[in-house]
Specification:
This protein is α/β, with parallel strands linked by helices and 316 residues long. 38% of the residues lie in helices and 14% in strands. The protein binds N-carbamoyl-L-aspartate.
């Protein structure tokens, strides 16, 4: 086994072989999750704590189910409602939890870099479930697994990531992963939603969506992240939909067998037409959710193997 990491903080530190190892194991967990008996014991005896400092339904549910299917004791901490409101710092909270001996800490935080900082302070495995605009590694991995299963490969594909790139950790992790696996990545959106210095990412940038979608294998839509905007990014939702909303006419510019993806939650009629989202011949949005559980099982399994292989700290 080639996966040697203590944490999963982002796609950036992963090698091509790490990504393949994660996806291969995820495929096995997809099979397990389709059986009536969905239990395995890879995390038996371990404690998993989910700390979400930002609202999340699907990602938290996905990590919770992944941990439970692998036999961990799983605890969810809704951090907005707790001591954060009482002024406790992130590090204080982490140290308090650390004293309870968790083995896996799953963290979502609105600030970029917060999860990396936390990983330096605790002695368990930390998984980044999304930090600010920085990374969302399990999302990129579940997207990669979905693409690999739909297209039969994860290299030399042409993939358009469309919409609100500037505010998106999903886009960032996907750009890094798809680049490492040697695909051609295009970014499509208005200049106001493109991050600064985008040329350094080794991607092609398109302002015109029809040009951007021309002959691509994968169309990956992003949610318009209004909660991260402070005004002035788009003229109006109607105008945005007209220029950048994925509808049947724009999709016709992609390859005839191109798949449509969205990380959810979707704004129907803003970035994507509801009928396209529900079209089982084109949309793999439900598969993405299914792959999410399997990828999180694989990530936690691999981190737990590394935890168990680590020399035990001597108990006083
Ligand atoms: C993504 C996120 O939180 O970054 N969603 C998710 O993980 N389910 C994308 C988004 O919120 O638009």
């Amino acid at each position: 086994m080639t996966f040697q990491h203590a944490h999963l903080l982002g796609i950036e530190p992963l090698a091509q072989s790490d990504i393949s190892t994660l996806l291969d194991l995820s495929d096995q967990y997809v099979d397990l999750n389709r059986r009536d008996q969905k239990h395995a014991d890879a995390l038996a005896g371990l404690t998993q704590i989910n700390m979400f400092f930002e609202n999340s339904t699907r990602t938290q549910a996905s990590f919770e189910l992944a941990g439970k299917r692998l036999g961990a004791d799983v605890m969810n901490m809704a951090m907005q409602a707790s001591s954060i409101k009482k002024g406790e710092t992130l590090i204080d909270t982490a140290m308090t939890l650390n004293a309870m001996h968790p083995d896996l800490l799953v963290v979502r935080h609105p600030q970029s870099g917060a999860v990396d900082l936390l990983a330096q302070k605790v002695n368990c495995a930390v998984l980044n479930a999304g930090d600010g605009r920085h990374e969302h590694p399990t999302q990129a991995l579940l997207d990669a697994l979905t693409i690999r299963r739909a297209k039969g490969r994860l290299h030399r594909l042409s993939i358009a990531i469309c919409g609100d790139i500037a505010h998106s950790r999903v886009a960032r992790s996907n750009i890094i992963l798809l680049g490492k696996m040697e695909n051609r990545v295009r970014l499509v959106g208005p200049p106001t939603l493109m991050p600064a210095g985008i040329a350094e990412f080794g991607v092609e940038v398109f302002e015109d969506m029809r040009e951007g979608l021309k002959d691509v294998d994968v169309v990956m839509m992003l949610r318009l992240q209004r909660e991260r905007m402070d005004g002035g990014f788009i003229p109006s939702e109607r105008e945005y939909y007209h220029r950048y909303g994925l509808d049947a006419e724009k999709l016709r510019h992609a390859k005839a067998d191109a798949i449509v993806m969205h990380p959810g939650p979707m704004n129907r009629g803003v970035e994507i037409d509801g009928e396209i989202a529900d079209d089982i011949n084109r949309s793999v949005i439900q598969e993405q959710v299914e792959m999410g559980v399997a990828v999180r099982m694989a990530a936690m399994d691999l981190l737990a193997r590394n935890l168990r292989a680590r020399p035990k700290e001597v108990m006083a």
